[in-house]
Write a structure and sequence with these properties.
The chain is an alpha/beta fold. The chain has helices at residues 3-18, 129-143, 156-167, 186-201, 215-229, 233-239, 246-260, 264-275, 291-296, 315-324, 347-364; strands spanning 33-41, 47-58, 68-72, 98-102, 148-154, 172-178, 301-306, 328-332. α1 crosses α7 (246-260), α2 crosses α3 (156-167) and α4 (186-201) runs antiparallel to α8 (264-275).
């Protein structure tokens, strides 16, 4: 793989992992919608003022409102994050299901440090992944949906998915958690801290009061996350029989991240929430920080998927959860891509995820009969 082919492959990987960041809808995409919630009180006691959650929908909600699936998104991603599983004939088929694809707090589409008029940039309050779940819960109430077939998401979306199973155990029949964690590991926190310091070390960052995105910082952030943490050594070695060919690929990864144009303060805010996630800390449920006890409280049927060698959300986190949750199935994605396997980067990985999720949902819904 040389020159232009390396650049094209790199751009495809970057865009599939980030799922478009805060991009506008393309031709034929369902339109963005916004639910203006108003002041959103956070778990910390702080408030996001004038909060609105962004979302799109696929398919039609049936008369019984029994066919809804909630899609939750990854860090720096948006409602396009698992588009590779949404569509006719795919696992999340809009001819069968009504899919509500949401944007997480801080992703640049829902209210975020980058777009808040009253709490802009560093003035934006700290939020948690459970606050994301709360905003999604309020959206469902607004839509008149009281029960879900499933909640589905990848990476931070997988983390939100497990939190949904703990916070609202009677709300859904199933959970589809791709590359999840129930509690963020020290390694994952270390990765995120390195990305934040990369952004902050760029003089253009200007203590978060930048006029332009800190390009040098974003390039280093891409090297840390998009090159190292979301791939595997074996996977990169397999991509580049000539080892020095990795260098233009790294440059292309950086260019891809810059093209996406995510906001630095948004990244810092979402990664801060990522670091502090532990389903065992869910208020009012007396888990006392014990994430395994929290996993045991999940009533829904659960499908967990990831690939060997995931360095960002370590592989053993999903395997452990599958052994603790009372009704859980673990599917390994046979890929060298690590964390990136939970994206549209490789057709074979997409096929594995779609097939597993389709079979899982078919069993959950008794071949669709429970949707009638």
């Amino acid at each position: 793989m040389h020159g232009r082919s390396i650049l094209c492959a790199a751009m495809a990987l970057v865009l599939s992992v980030a799922a478009g960041a805060a991009q506008a809808s393309g031709p034929g995409d369902p339109p963005h919608q916004r639910y203006e919630i108003g002041d959103l009180k956070l778990e910390s006691g702080e408030t996001i003022k004038d909060f609105a959650i962004s979302y799109v929908t696929h398919g039609t909600l049936n008369e019984k409102k029994s066919n809804a699936i909630l899609m939750v998104t990854a860090i720096s991603g948006n409602h396009h994050r698992i588009d590779f599983m949404i569509g006719p004939g795919k696992a999340l088929d809009p001819n069968k299901y009504f899919i509500v694809a949401t944007d997480a707090i801080g992703n640049g589409l829902s209210t975020s440090p980058s777009n808040s008029k009253t709490q802009h940039g560093t003035a934006f309050p700290r939020f948690m992944i459970r606050d994301m779940v709360q905003s999604e819960w309020l959206l469902l109430q607004h839509l008149g949906i009281t029960h879900l077939v499933a909640v589905a998401g990848a990476s931070m979306g997988g983390m939100q998915t497990l939190q949904w199973g703990v916070s609202h155990p009677d709300t859904m029949d199933a959970l589809i958690a791709i590359t999840p964690m129930a509690r963020t590991t020290a390694w994952s926190i270390a990765v995120n801290e390195a990305t934040r310091k990369a952004l902050m070390a760029d003089a253009a960052f200007a203590d978060g009061k930048y006029e332009h995105q800190p390009e040098k910082g974003w390039r280093v952030r891409a090297d840390i996350l998009n090159v190292l943490a979301t791939h595997t050594p074996d996977g990169i070695d397999a991509m580049f029989p000539n080892p020095l060919d990795v260098l233009p690929w790294i440059d292309a990864q950086e260019a891809g991240v810059l093209k996406i144009g995510f906001d630095a303060n948004d990244w810092i805010a979402q990664s801060w929430a990522y670091d502090r996630h532990n389903i065992g800390d869910t208020p009012g449920l007396n888990f006392n920080g014990d994430y395994l006890k929290a996993l045991r409280s999940i009533k829904a049927k659960v499908l967990l998927m990831n690939a060997p060698g995931d360095l960002y959300n370590p592989t053993d986190q999903a395997i452990e959860a599958s052994k603790v949750i009372s009704d859980a199935r673990y599917v390994q994605i046979p890929s060298l891509l690590g964390h990136t396997a939970g994206s549209a980067a490789k057709a074979a990985d997409v096929e594995v995820m779609n097939r597993a999720a389709h079979e899982f949902l078919d069993a959950v819904t008794d071949g669709g009969r429970k949707l009638q």
